[in-house]
Design a protein that fits this description.
Length: 142
């Protein structure tokens, strides 16, 4: 019993899928897609040289195109920030004078203790300030 070339390519694609799952390296998946393309070429009657060329071209093209896109997405900050990080950059209203000794602001519907970034600055009640940092339970404002 002779096994067709396309079956061998599919076995190769499945074999490449195992390290993809075990290591989470997307390059193995791209090589597996190249093997599937070579299996299709073999199933359509392409010779061995054409099968290898299709495998190489599809695999290299996927790695060259998809890998930089994936790397760019991996390095971007998540769009959804929560907790203390979500408060940085928000505006607040001064409730009690904020100076080097402290004060109170209304931030995101809650009352926070606050201090100015520059200890020589002070903000009066009713002024709008921006939160630059959260230090424990104190908002640092400008």
């Amino acid at each position: 019993m002779d096994i067709d070339a396309w079956v061998w390519w599919l076995i190769g694609a499945a074999a490449l899928g195992i390290p993809l799952v075990m290591t989470a390296m997307p390059e193995f998946g791209m090589l597996a897609v190249g093997a599937v393309a070579a299996a299709v070429t073999a199933g359509l009657g392409g010779d061995v040289v054409l099968q290898v060329v299709v495998f190489a071209v599809v695999s290299v093209a996927l790695i060259a195109v998809v890998r930089p896109i994936a790397a760019r997405h991996r390095s971007q900050r998540p769009e959804l920030v929560s907790g203390v990080e979500a408060l940085k950059g928000r505006s607040a209203v001064v409730l009690e004078r904020v100076d080097a000794n402290g004060g109170r602001i209304k931030l995101a519907g809650e009352i926070w203790s606050a201090r100015p970034l520059d200890n020589e600055q002070s903000y009066e009640a009713g002024q709008e300030v921006d939160v630059v940092e959260i230090d424990g339970a104190t908002a640092v404002v400008i």
